[in-house]
Amino acid sequence: MTGAALILSLGLACEGEEREDDDELGGDLEEIMERRGLTEVDILAAAKTYTPSGKLDEYVLLASGGHSGHVLVIGVPSMRILKYVGVFSPEPFQGYGMGGLGDAILYGEGKQRGRTLTWGDIHHPNLSETNGDYDGEFMFVNDKANSRIAVIDLEDFMTKQIVTNPLLASSHGGAIVTPNTDYVLEVSQYATPLGGDYAPLSEFQTRYRGAATFWKFDRAKGRIDPARSFSVELPPYAQDISDAGKFASDGYVFVNSWDTEMAAGKLGEGQPVLESGASQNDMDYLHVINFKKAESLVAEGKAIEINGMRVLPLDVAAKEHVLVFIPEPKSPHGCDVTPDGTGIVVAGKLDTHASVFEFSKIKDLIERGEFASTDPYGVSVLDFQKALRGQVEIGLGPLHTTFDNTGHAYTSVFLDSTVVRWNYTKLDEPIQTIQVQYNIGHLIAAEGDSAHPQGQWLMAMNKMSQDRYVSTGPLLPQNFQLIDISGPTMQLVADLPIGLGEPHFAMLIKADKLKTLDFYKPPGINPYTGLRAEGAVAPGQERVERNGKKVDVYMTVIRSHFTPSTIEVDEGDEVTLHITSVEQSRDQTHGFAIDMYNLSLSLEPGRYEQATFIADTPGVFPFYCTEFCSALHLEMAGYLFVRPKGG
Ligand code: K7E
Ligand code: CUA
Question: What is the mean pLDDT of residues 590-599?
Fold first, then answer.
């Protein structure tokens, strides 16, 4: 078959369009395929994902950047990287945490117990929802290492808030949203005494605790309101991933745990190490939390206060059945509510099944008071079989589950390196298994954890890439793999190495749901407040004001100059730059950098930035624009003169 015939057979040529000669196309397809060792399946995969220059992606992947502290924004199906969003780490391109207004978030709000942090470990991005569907307005991410939650505004893909958990020393089961984004959930991982207290390991069972924090989200303000947030105290069971109910199960959240053995409490006693000690029991406990009930009990004054956070005590949560347990196969990891809200899929790392719990059964058992036992903390435990819809044999090391629009569940299988497609209602034999490279962690289908998954695409987020890429030394990238799930047979169609560590979960949203700003208007908007800044100036109003040792510089930027472009101060002066971009056209971004002051500001059209520093070193300091903004970009520069004392 000739290359042109192959194109026709693949349905690539448009009807009625003149076919050009292979030569005019710059080569013979068949010859290229042979030379590069490509099969027809490869060509089909390329045709499904190749996105010609100027064509836009249909979906956007918002992926955790793990311990890089960033979020990755990736176009799907092209797998083109669109942006790195600085969240828990400084990001010089966005001018975040680099001397400007973003410092107040990263180094101010972001302080945990008084400490400045310059990184975080992002695991689970979640999008804001309206009635269980993504609305494209906000994203929330958790920091496992330092128990924090960040709010990212999707108008400009910038981090607008960090809240720090005053109870926990690590958190994993976040940032999960409830169906109308009333709450953003953050759940502990490694148990510690709540609030940062000291207690020896011998007091593990009595003093160490977990907690589920319900951060109240104020949609109108676009911010979490810590004063209206509350927590539920949990036993020290090493809580894990969580998910929020929807529809019938709205008002509940579900949280895994993997150390009901409390093996962590025996770490100092020559007992089994944590990984074997925490795997001794056949069952751990799925936590069922009725947060609507918790909310009313807290409102009735049943909470105690720890570090300013209202906490519903464990004994109250147990007695009122705010917290109920269901046994779940040993050391589970994934916990995913089905799109219709009727089932909860749990997969255990050390169990070959996916177990589906039936919410209506759980609710009936709780309402009837039909419990199988009680745990040492007085929490009622349901009977495993009575709460179960059923189980499906998935493979070795099943982890997470996502969903499509045709009743399929897709479970990642870590040890087997597979994605398994199965039916979460019928629970019959798995339908298809596809190999991925290698050791998949999370996976996400298009809008797969919303009430209305889209099907079509699934991203496998693999922990290891091994032989997939040209070697870059011992530290290898992780491997994102795009799978076409639109047909009866899943097809792996594209790879993307991720050279930042280590992505966990992601969201895959229809691109047209995102309503981003073209630029800030009117000029002088502080992106962190959305309001025109007090220090913003219009052209003609630029000036330098001196007040004793304080110097305020009111500056504008527009192609291709800073006004003023020379600033004279005395050694020891406190200098505040108030910089207004007066550009009002798309993509006319400037930057501001200055020698030695560790300062990098991004000045998108209309953006206001502000930076304060002590001019403590005499000398001549060039400042310049960091974006190649025009033909006269190199000329977009100026000088700061710091006159020596007594000079
Ligand atoms: Cu990596 Cu969700 Cu933290 Cu599983 S988690 S993989
Ligand atoms: Cu402005 Cu370069």
Answer: 96
Domains of the chain by residue range: 3-49, 59-513, 525-643
Section 274-288 average pLDDT: 85
Distance 520 CA to ligand 2 centre (A): 17
E runs forming strands in 102-194: 126-130, 133-143, 148-153, 158-164, 176-177, 183-187, 192-193
Q: Where is pLDDT greater, at 240 or 4?
A: 240
What is the Å distance from ligand 1's center to 437 Cα? 17
Residue 13, pLDDT > 50, answer: no
CATH number of the domain located at residue range(s) 525-643 in this protein: 2.60.40.420
- The closest ligand to the CA of 143 turns out to be 1
**Ligand 2 atom closest to 603 (CA):** 1
Confidence bin at 4 (pLDDT 50/70/90): very low
Angle at the Cα of 155 (from 151 to 161), degrees rounded to 5?
Answer: 20
- For 59-513, the fitting CATH number among 3.90.700.10, 2.60.40.10, 3.40.30.10, 2.130.10.10 is 2.130.10.10
Report which ligand 2 atom has the smallest distance to the Cα of 557.
Answer: 1
The Cα-based distances of 445 to 138, 179, 411, 505 in angstroms read 19, 18, 11, 11
Closest residue to atom 3 of ligand 1, CA basis: 123
Nearest atom, ligand 1, residue 144 CA:
3
pLDDT on residue 568: 97
Pocket test for ligand 1, best of 126, 505, 507 (most atoms within 8 A of CB): 505
Instruction: Tell me if 362 sits within 8 A of 378, measured CB to CB.
Output: no
Percent pLDDT > 70 in the chain is 95
Query: Could you tell me which of 305, 145, 146, 284 has the C-alpha nearest to residue 230?
Result: 305
Averaged pLDDT, 205-229: 98
What is the atom index within ligand 2 of the atom nearest the CA of 626? Answer: 2
DSSP label at 634?
G
Q: What is the pTM of this model?
A: 0.95
Q: How far is the CA of 556 from the centre of ligand 2 (A)?
A: 12
> pLDDT tier at 331 (50, 70, 90 boundaries)?
confident
459 backbone dihedrals φ, ψ, rounded to 5°: -105, 125
Report the percentage of the chain scoring pLDDT > 90: 91
Contacts of 2 (CB under 8 A, 6+ apart): 22, 28, 29, 30
